[in-house]
Amino acid sequence: MSFTVPGIIARSKGAPVEKVNVVVPDPGANDVIVDIQACGVCHTDLAYRDGDISDEFPYLLGHEAAGVVSVVGENVTHVEVGDFVVLNWRAVCGECRACKKGEPKYCFNTHNASKKMTLEDGTELSPALGIGAFIEKTLVHEGQCTKVNPDEDPAAAGLLGCGIMAGLGAAVNTADIQLGESVAVFGLGGVGMAAIAGAKLAGASKIIAVDIDERKLEWAKDFGATDVINSSGLSGEGEESEVVAKIRELTGGFGTDVTIDAVGIMPTWQQAFYSRDHAGRMVMVGVPNLTSRIDIPAIDFYGRGGSLRPAWYGDCLPERDFPAYVELHLQGRFPLDKFVSERIGLDDVEEAFNTMKAGDVLRSVVEL
């Protein structure tokens, strides 16, 4: 049987979100229904609402979610009813050219539910990142469910589903930070703060946090930053940036082994590029807009060596990474709970977008 439950949709570009009844159909053979317990409010949801990703309205928003499997399709073997799961948007297929090369984190054919959730009039909804979790029950492919320790707080666990994993993975997986290395992180939203925490977990000896918000710089110290730079009002561009100069002052004149751009705009991209030591590694995890262009002299790209890499989902493998970081949190070795700034209701999503834009939270989390 199908279910009709309340959910949060974006009906048109830039319009305030709406709470409506959503029809969740019976699962297909490899689909499951998950009773959502908590879902983080991510900047990607705001981007969907504002039409910055595509125009496939109406959207069912929400994707950083944890909950309990309540119904399974006839061929499901990956999870069972009653399993506590974190939802992911990289359910790898195992058959595409990336998977066959042993690089499933780049899977080109990730799984999603075989059916669409709809409004009561039959209008099909586009689920954010193939999930759609600002809702009491959602329909996903079984591979989008990653079992984790049920002792974990759902509000904390769900954040591994996107932003926190993106920043953490950028540090641990993409940058592959080694014991004793130095790191600079630009931008201290949830993703950047997770990169700070990831750098600490990986054993970095010097972790430099860069942002224009003094409050966030103070928060960064709690996550592991050893040094902070308030870039507000600092002048210069590219290699002549005062931010670059300050980072070199903190690293014996050389720059850091690793830089992570968690903003995705060209000023921070250039600061990250030029703040590296010779042959240092730069990771871009902040998502640029559709009109951004990278502009540096080619000789600078050539002459500095090292590597420049984007981080997609923190190069994570959910089945490997989600359970591991939940266990690290339960052991007191990773501060996953600190990313939960406030707990809100389903009716509060629109206000949470405003709070996010004001920079007052790392994550608002909807609890159901």
Automatic annotation (TrEMBL):
It comes from Corynebacterium gallinarum. It comes from the Bacteria. Belongs to the zinc-containing alcohol dehydrogenase family. GO terms for molecular function: mycothiol-dependent formaldehyde dehydrogenase activity; S-(hydroxymethyl)glutathione dehydrogenase [NAD(P)+] activity; zinc ion binding. Residues 7-366 form the Enoyl reductase (ER) domain. It is an enzyme of class 1 (oxidoreductase). PROSITE patterns: ADH_ZINC (PS00059). Its EC number is 1.1.1.306. One of its GO terms (biological process) is formaldehyde catabolic process. It holds the Pfam family ADH_zinc_N. Keywords: Metal-binding, NAD, Oxidoreductase, Zinc. Its cofactor is Zn(2+). This is S-(Hydroxymethyl)mycothiol dehydrogenase. InterPro entries: ADH-like_C, ADH-like_N, ADH_Zn_CS, ER, GroES-like_sf, MycoS_dep_FDH, NAD(P)-bd_dom_sf. PANTHER family: ALCOHOL DEHYDROGENASE (PTHR43880), ALCOHOL DEHYDROGENASE CLASS-3 (PTHR43880:SF12). One of its GO terms (cellular component) is cytosol.
